[in-house]
Amino acid sequence: MSFLQFEDLIDYATGQRPNGGWVTVYARDERDNEDGGYYSALVPVGNIDAHLVEPSWDLDLGDGTPGFSFYFDDRASEYHRFGDDSGVEPLVVCRYFHGIKPSYVEVSEEFRYFHNLYEDRATRTLFAFDDSGDDIEVVRVSDDKVEVRVKYLKEYLAVRGMVLLLLYVIDRWSEKSLDELGMARQDEQQGGSDYRYSRFVDAFPVLAPERNSCGRLLGKTVMRGAANYDPQRSWGRHDRKYEEFIIGVDDDGEEVYYTCDEEKLANNFGKNPDAPHFLRPVFFSKEVMAKYYNDPGKFRVEDGYLRCAGYWGVPLDNNHQKYVVVFLGDLGKLSHKEQLYWKRYNVPPDGRMSDVYFRRSMLGEWADATEPALVFKRTYERFGKHWNSNHGWELFKKLKPADAHHWTSLHVPSDGNQKEFDEQIMSLAKLLVDRINEAEVGKRAILEPNDKGGITKFGRYLDAIGFTEAGAFVQFLRNLQSLRSGAAHVKSAKNNSDYQKAMRFFDLGTKGLSQGFADILDGATVFIGKLEELAVTGSDGQETS
Predict the structure, then answer these.
(1) Which residue from 140, 170, 363, 483 could staple onto 147, CB 3.0 to 4.6 Å apart?
(2) Count of the separate structural domains present in the chain
(3) Mean pLDDT, residues 500-520
């Protein structure tokens, strides 16, 4: 009996929705003995009472699109943005194409533009981005349902000066008659300041045998805009939050913290003379960069700079041998969420910033990078340009787009992190082994009948052009390849002797993974640099342009 009277949905009908952070603004719901339809309509705040007089819907599926009024007298036709002048707008638009193309639903264009939502068309999800550049699900769309995150919807309503009417109609039925259910016909309406609904129960034996009795719940509830919404807060002109970072230790060895708020720091123009300077170096363990290396599609780690697409960037000292160093004031330019992330890796100052960063930031001098990965990348890029310019072909082919992350995320791994070490070995091998231009090298090398593989052909070519370091470079590449191959197998002398030989060749057991990889990069840089000398001078006997 209570099923047909919708007693389980009375809280919903009176606007008492669970606070789950999401609201359904469109849905079709079919289940045993029940069909449900849900929709929504935007109406001005001042018109709420007029729309709560009746429980009937204020907007039907497919309505709310542009239209005209035509007259049979001399009056000109009128254009209506939403089909009429009632002030009712759709939040979800149902698009129909009369069977020629599939129908679908989409969310109001103004809502999408207001929050600058990005659509992932594969999942039909709309995302916003916070000031850290992290994506946030705002709208979930499927064939049968559209859900919107409440926070973003209420902000939109507040700005527009509108409310959202959540419309619903739910039909239920039973194969039993009203007499068998001990029920009588029922037809009632209930209403309040933010809701109006009707409940209707009757017998309809002519519809179908399984529908001897039916019930319908029809109505609407009101969702209002955020009461304390401040546009400045959402549009980037609000009071920012600032964390405190370790800037030193006191006489008792206790850590000293200070805010990164630029307004509270000293500068070179006499501001806050008793406060720490904007340019106070703050130290972080190198693990802080893992987040950025692991997502090269979003972040880019450059020589002296970290950027998140076009959202934010921060200068930093990544040429320091042991730490990453950032000026205190520059930390304040990060979002609060990003500051909290960096704070986890904050350590007391230990020495000074790198000589490279000091010369660049304090003395205004040009200074080349000294960090092994940065030096290797600079040398590798420069060599490629010189070689291609002088010879008209690439000795190392450019990475495929799918492999671009091997370049952008190349770095010295943390000591003891075997997984990170294996990944970096893979990236370096991609650049130095996989991208050898075998086709061009093979044309110019003197090959033996049994010569196979890119490294062997490369070695023959280096011999042919008189590269005095050919044997050492080939040995280097073969051991690099052994490290790369061993990453996919059990690393023991019994199961992977080539890997163990490569470990000994690069002295990784003594140096450790971090220093060992740094030395591998240094070695690769030396070889590339010597090849570059040939490319620049043309002394390899090859044609030059």
Answers:
(1) 140
(2) 3
(3) 94
> Which of residues 291, 326, 361 is at a domain's end?
361
Query: Going by DSSP bridges, is the β-strand pair 244-249/255-259 parallel, antiparallel, or unpaired?
Result: antiparallel
**Tokens standing for 68?**
């005209």
Shared domain check, 138 and 156: yes
How confident is residue 244, by pLDDT bands cut at 50, 70 and 90?
very high
Average pLDDT, the chain: 90
**Token pair 């002394």: residue:** 539
Q: Which of 320, 342, 361 is the last residue of a domain?
A: 361
Residues 320, 452: one domain? no
Q: Looking at beta carbons, which pairs linking 30-35 to residues 24 or more positions away fall under 8 Å? A: 33/3, 33/172, 33/173, 33/174, 33/210, 34/170, 34/171, 34/172, 34/173, 35/170, 35/171
Q: What is the DSSP letter of 433?
A: I
* 470: its two tokens: 């050919």
Confidence at residue 489, expressed as pLDDT on a 0 to 100 scale = 54
Give dist(CA 38, CA 92) in Å, integer: 11
Give this prediction's pTM.
0.80
Q: How many C-beta atoms lie closer than 10 Å to residue 336's C-beta?
A: 14
148 and 288 part of one domain: no
Full strand arrangement of the beta sheet holding 346-347: 323-327, 281-285, 346-347
- Average pLDDT of span 513-522: 96
Angle in degrees, CA 170, 172, 177, rounded to 5: 150
Q: Strand, helix or coil at 200?
A: strand
Specify the 3-state DSSP secondary structure of 470: helix
Q: Furthest-apart CA pair in the chain: how many Å?
A: 104
Q: What is the pLDDT of residue 178?
A: 85
User: Are 272 and 187 part of one and the same domain?
Assistant: no
Do 321 and 398 fall within a single domain? Answer: no
CA distance 400 to 490: 29
Residues 396 and 384 sit within 8 Å (Cβ to Cβ): yes
Q: Is residue 98 part of a domain?
A: yes
* 219 and 184 inside one domain: yes
Q: Are residues 179 and 281 in the same domain?
A: no
- Which structure tokens are listed for 448? 């033996």
Within-domain flag for 104: yes
Q: Measure the CA–CA gap between 15 and 281, rounded to whole angstroms.
A: 54
Q: Is the pLDDT of residue 331 over 60?
A: yes
Determine the structural domain holding residue 315 and report its residue range.
240-361
Sign of CA dihedral 86, 88, 89, 90: negative
The CA distance from 243 to 331, in Å, is 9
> What pLDDT was estimated at residue 425?
96
Residues 368-383 pLDDT 10s: 999 999 999 999 999 9
Cβ atoms of 413 and 449 closer than 8 Å: no
- Given this model, what pLDDT does residue 238 score? 56
Residue 1, domain member (yes or no): no
| 352 and 319 assigned to the same domain | yes
Residue with tokens 């030193």: 248
544 found inside a domain: no
pLDDT at 20: 78
Q: Are 95 and 105 in contact (CB under 8 A)?
A: yes
Q: Is the pLDDT of residue 103 over 60?
A: yes
